[in-house]
Write a structure and sequence with these properties.
By secondary structure, the protein is of the alpha+beta class. The chain contains 6 helices and 4 strands. It is about 35% helix and about 15% strand. Strands 1-2-4-3 form a 4-stranded antiparallel β-sheet. The chain is globular, with a radius of gyration of 17 Å.
Length: about 170
């Protein structure tokens, strides 16, 4: 989703999405996630930094290049706990957080809200974590979810074309 209209999304919708997200299965009830709503002031600072970085040193256009960041109605950064002394636990917590993100996005969709999960091209830029209040020693950014009402409504969105069908990804072993 890239084309959002400017209808505000209520905080109640966001809270319901987070409520669905934190119902995701997770290792020993570790609840490794954190959800950070990013306001317009911070989005403006992020946009300034990204525009500067792209004009100076980004020969390859990122997936977020050319986007009017302030036109995106909602931003929510999701993080997962770091456990550097136990990479298996950290990986399992990351998987749990990914499940939470899926629940978040499905909840938004059920209320007619479109979402877009942004990762490396946006969240790994210098200064992004500091602007969002994320201590990278303690947590990793799983993604930034852009959300809002889709221009023309969710029924007018283009369906995602899958590369593989069920027969290409499913096998059975006796």
């Amino acid at each position: 989703m890239r084309n959002f209209d400017q209808t505000p999304v209520s905080d109640d919708v966001l809270r319901r999405a987070i409520e669905c997200a934190i119902a995701a299965p997770n290792r020993s009830m570790s609840e490794p996630w954190r959800f950070i709503q990013i306001g317009r002031e911070t989005v403006g600072k992020i946009a300034e930094r990204l525009d500067e970085a792209e004009s100076v040193s980004d020969p390859e256009r990122s997936e977020s290049a050319g986007v009017d960041y302030l036109a995106i109605p909602g931003w929510c950064v999701i993080t997962s706990k770091r456990t550097p002394d136990d990479p298996v636990v950290e990986e399992t917590d990351f998987a749990s957080t990914a499940c939470a993100v899926q629940n978040f996005m499905l909840s938004m969709w059920s209320e007619g809200i479109g979402t877009r999960w942004m990762q490396s091209s946006l969240t790994q830029r210098p200064g992004f974590s500091e602007l969002c209040g994320v201590d990278l020693e303690k947590e990793k950014i799983v993604g930034c979810i852009w959300y809002g009402f889709v221009s023309g409504g969710v029924l007018n969105t283009s369906p995602w074309v899958r590369k593989n069908d069920v027969d290409e990804v499913y096998s059975s072993i006796p």
